Amino acid sequence: MLKYTIKRIISLIPVIIGATLIVYVILSMADGDPARIILGEDATPERVAELREEMGLNDPVLVQYGRYMLNLLHGDMGVSYRTGAPVVTEIAARLPNTIRLALVASVVSIVLAIPLGIIAAIKQNSIFDGICMVVSLIGVSMPSFWLGLLLILLFSLRLEWLPSFGADQWKCIILPSFALAVASMASVARTMRSSMLEVIRQDYIRTARSKGLSEGTVIRRHALRNAMIPTMTSIGLQTGILLSGSVLVETVFSWPGIGRLMITSIQQRDIPTVVGCIIIFAICFSIVNLIVDLLYGLVDPRMKSQYA
Fold this sequence. Notes:
Blueprint: H1 2-29, H2 34-39, H3 45-55, H4 61-73, H5 87-122, H6 127-141, H7 144-158, H8 174-199, H9 203-210, H10 215-244, H11 246-252, H12 258-267, H13 271-299, H14 301-307
């Protein structure tokens, strides 16, 4: 298990290099001059040219990227073009908010999706099953930012129950977490239903029922554990998507997280901050998937033997 974990951590290195290189090249090709953004529109061309030379912006893109990655090895993500503050400081101040939002949304989606998927599978082809699948289809198809705007119009503007922006009180997280959780909940519920349908048709389930066990015991002790294996994969992917997909939701609800920071940085061509955010998202996504893979060994002993 330890050897497998180390190999997965090492495999994170090419993922970070590939993701950051693509983003760095794209932002370098975009319109706008970072030196002009830093100095403002009133700066003279001579001062702009001097700052570009100081920042190394006249060097080829690959040279700039290589210099950035060398600094990253020493824990230096550079300095924000917008504020002049270290990128590490800005990300560290906002990362807890993004993690909190993603975790709350993940808990909401799991708590609602798994029971709905199980009941829909047990009551296959019933009215409840049909309603769950239609709602799940709508949830998967609905953009999170559009749902967020609808929630603001209803609960903030019309009913005035919940705030539509900020993070200074616990009520502020309700709307953005629900808007973020809907698509994840729909996907996990559909995966749980299909996995449960496959499991409850197996021979050992019929054997358990023939022994006189109650339906609840059969589902909890025999069917659910095996059905959770593919569902855990879906949960892991959705949790990673919640972390990286919070960009639009954070922007709609003015949530002070990394997603909103990255959107602002893209608009102002703040390359070090954007690349730093991408690195954090890549690391979080990989860690979540690693945790899910390790949990397989707890759910299914066969997977643990494969890791060994």
